[in-house]
């Protein structure tokens, strides 16, 4: 019987502390940057913008973000069922929302905890469920790229790099959902580097298991759900700007929000922290929005999107962990 070599406990602890230190460092830099920008414009002006928001307006922002998460959670369920996983809707939402707790890990790799929960509850190996991660990310990229392209086309704003980021996102989504193409990329990468044979072998196995998503319309349906979800958050950003008095069109607000989110992700930083905020403030400034408005708007929209998702994940995570262990023990004793 084959055994899997696990890293020593002290190495796992060291990695966990390294990830936490990296996240705290990035968050600290963002907070310092936002405080510095606010101080440069005057605290009174910045706080005045925050005070313009009522409780119902904050609730509306959170509600639009929640709509995004629920639509994408339902998409996760559709993808899981299309793959052949016998999981209920509540389990799918538990896995998807609980994974948000790990969004702040480098490159969001911690969200792979969803695969662990599925393995415990269904017995499916991670290699078999890996396509879920690929199509989930690809669906998001496709939806965001299409939405941002449409927003850029109808906006008078000029976002340098916008068309490039849009094209890059669409290309990544296309490759990630084409089994043969993804396998060819893995073969090319292995030959070109001559390293990490196991990693490239996993990619090839994942590519083969993507076959169910190459037909049946699951990818299209999932991308439509994602498009509506991301549109909700883009509208939330537009409403926020309007409520604090910033004169920005709906298409421009959506383009800025999506570009900043994608650009932050390209930095590889956990949750895009740092890069997304810097891009958002810079693009709003190019639209003539003063720092006294752009800084609080950026802080608020990130709190009601990224950090709201993480808060939900932190609540659901222990529930998902306990439930998966309970189901796993039940399967073992059956």
Keywords for this structure?
single chain; 334 residues; mainly alpha; 14 helices; globular; disordered N terminus; transmembrane; Integral membrane protein; transmembrane helix
Can you describe what's shown?
The protein has 334 residues and is an all-alpha fold. The chain has one domain. It is 78% helix and 0% strand. The radius of gyration is 21 Å and the shape is globular. It is a multi-pass membrane protein.
Major β-sheet profile: none
Radius of gyration (CA) equals 21 Å
Helix/sheet category: mainly alpha
Helix-strand pattern: HHHHHHHHHHHHHH
Q: Would you tell me the overall average pLDDT?
A: 78
Question: Uncertain runs with pLDDT below 50, 5 residues or more?
Answer: 1-7
Gross geometry = globular
Task: Compute the number of strand runs.
Answer: 0
Helix content: over 70%
* Tally of discrete structural domains: 1
Task: Please tally the helical runs, counting DSSP H or I stretches of 4 or more residues.
Answer: 14
The separation of the N and C termini measures 22 Å
Strand content: under 5%
